[in-house]
Write a structure and sequence with these properties.
Blueprint lengths: L3 E2 L3 H4 L12 E5 L12 H15 L4 E5 L4 H7 L4 E5 L7 H4 L2 E4 L5 E7 L5 H4 L6 H4 L1 H8 L4 E7 L6 E2 L4 E5 H4 L10 H12 L3 E5 L16 E5 L2 E6 L6 H14 L10 E6 L8 H5 L24 E3 L2 E6 L5 H11 L4 E6 L1 H4 L10 E3 L1
Parallel strand pairs: 1-7, 2-3, 3-4, 6-7, 9-10, 12-13, 15-16
Antiparallel strand pairs: 2-17, 5-6, 8-9, 11-12, 14-15
Bound molecules: 6-aminohexanamide.
Length: 362
C-alpha cells in the first residue's frame, strides 16, 4: 500500500532528475472538454494520439482517459499505448500529474502538488478542478509509489530542473496571486528546494506573451543539458515577446547554476506570431465561466514546449516558415537524440503544447 510521507524529498534523500535523463515511461491525459478543444475535441485527440505514438516508439506511454472516452481512446491509440481510466477535468498531465523524484538507490516517489487550474478563483481557467487535483495521487497509486503531498499550489510546467541542483522558473507564474498568495518569494523558494531537492532557483522574470498559465517556464526556456538553456526568441523588436525574451536572456547571462557554471543560452526563434482564426474560435463550445478564446487572439506559440523521451525529442510544429530552422537547430544542439516534429497547432489552441501534455516517469 503506497504511503504518504509528511517529510520532504530533500529530508529523505530524493530529488527530481532532469527530463533529459532516462525514463521508465511517459504519462498523458486524453483531451475531451469542448470549451478547450474545438469540434468536439476530435482534432486535438488526433494530435494527442500522434504525440503518444511518436513517444511510444522510444518508451512506454500510458494515457489516462475519462470513463466516457475509454472505448474511443482505446480504439484510436496504438495498441502499445496503455490506456487507463483516470478521471480528469482537462488534459494537462504536466501540470496535474506527479513530479517524480528518485534517490541514489534507484527508488522512485512522487510529489503531489496542489492544483487549482492555473489560478483558482482568482484567474484560473476552469472550475471545478477537483478531478485534476486527484490525478497525481492516482498515478502514484497505479505505480504503487509513495507520495509527498506538497503544501504548495504548483504545476509541473512552471519548473524545469537540470538534475544537478538547479531549478528554472518564472516570477510571473510562481508569484502570481492565484497560486500561493500567502507565501513570500523566499518561502516559495524554500519549498522548491525541499520538494525538488535543488540548491539554486533561477527566477526568470516573465514567461511567453499571452500565456494563459501566467507565464509557465516550459513555454519559454528549458535545460538542454546542465549548463545549457534553450530560450524562445524573436528578432522583431516590435513584438511584445521581444522584451520578455530579451529580459530572460539578460537575466540568465548574469546567473550561474548550482555548480557555479555560467549558462550557455541558445535562442530558438518563435513561430508566427500565430493567432486564433474565426473558424477555430467558432468550433469551441461556449460555456459560462470558461476561459474566453476569441478570433484574433494571439497564441502563446513556442518551439521550447518540446518533450525529451528516451533517445528522442518530440517538438511541436505549426506549418510555419520557422519550423524547419527550429528543428534543425535543436537537432544540431542535441546530436545524441532524434529530433522529431509533430504538428501541434491543435494542442496550442488549448493553451499549451507537447511538454504540457506529457509527464516523464524516471
Ligand atoms: O504550460 C503548460 N504546462 C500547460 C498549459 C495549460 C493550458 C491550459 N488551458
Amino acid at each position: 500500500m503506497p504511503h504518504t510521507f509528511s517529510t520532504t524529498p530533500r529530508a529523505d534523500g530524493f530529488f527530481m532528475p532532469a527530463e533529459f535523463g532516462p525514463h521508465r515511461g511517459t504519462w498523458m491525459l486524453w483531451p475531451q472538454r469542448t470549451d478547450t478543444w474545438r469540434l468536439g475535441a476530435k482534432p486535438a485527440q488526433a494530435a494527442f494520439a500522434a504525440v503518444a505514438a511518436a513517444i511510444a516508439r522510444f518508451e512506454p506511454v500510458t494515457m489516462g482517459v475519462n470513463h466516457s472516452q475509454y472505448a474511443h481512446a482505446r480504439q484510436i491509440l496504438p495498441p502499445d499505448v496503455r490506456v487507463v481510466e483516470l478521471s480528469n477535468n482537462d488534459a494537462w498531465m504536466r501540470d496535474c500529474g506527479p513530479t517524480f523524484v528518485v534517490n541514489q538507490q534507484g527508488e522512485t516517489r512522487g510529489v503531489d502538488w496542489g492544483f487549482n487550474a492555473w489560478g483558482g478563483l482568482y484567474n484560473g481557467l476552469y472550475f471545478p478542478w477537483d478531478l485534476d487535483d486527484a490525478v497525481a495521487r492516482k498515478v502514484l497509486e497505479i505505480e504503487r509509489l509513495d507520495r509527498y503531498r506538497a503544501p504548495l499550489v504548483l504545476e509541473g510546467g512552471s519548473i524545469h530542473v537540470d538534475g544537478q541542483g538547479t531549478c528554472l522558473t518564472t516570477a510571473e507564474c510562481l508569484l502570481s496571486p492565484g497560486r500561493n498568495p500567502a507565501l513570500s518569494k523566499d518561502e516559495i523558494e524554500a519549498y522548491l528546494k525541499e520538494y525538488l531537492n535543488v540548491e539554486k532557483v533561477l527566477w526568470i522574470p516573465r514567461g511567453v506573451y499571452q500565456d494563459e498559465t501566467s507565464g509557465h517556464v516550459d513555454n519559454l526556456a528549458c535545460f538542454l543539458r546542465p549548463g545549457e538553456v534553450a530560450l524562445t526568441w524573436t528578432d522583431d523588436r516590435s513584438d511584445p515577446q521581444y522584451e520578455r525574451s530579451a529580459e530572460a536572456l539578460d537575466y540568465l547571462l548574469t546567473q550561474t547554476d548550482a555548480r557555479g557554471r555560467k549558462l550557455s543560452i541558445h535562442k530558438i526563434h518563435q513561430p508566427g506570431p500565430l493567432y486564433l482564426t474565426a473558424e477555430e474560435a467558432a468550433g469551441l463550445d461556449v460555456v459560462e465561466g470558461a476561459y474566453p478564446r476569441r478570433a484574433g487572439d494571439r497564441l502563446a506559440a513556442s518551439y521550447i514546449n518540446f518533450y525529451f523521451c528516451n533517445g528522442a525529442t518530440i517538438v511541436p510544429t505549426f506549418n510555419d516558415p520557422h519550423d524547419a530552422e527550429a528543428l534543425a537547430t535543436l537537432q544540431r544542439l542535441l546530436p545524441e537524440r532524434r529530433v522529431i516534429g509533430i504538428p501541434a497547432r491543435e494542442i496550442l489552441l488549448g493553451g499549451g503544447n507537447i511538454h504540457c501534455i506529457t509527464q516523464q516517469q524516471p
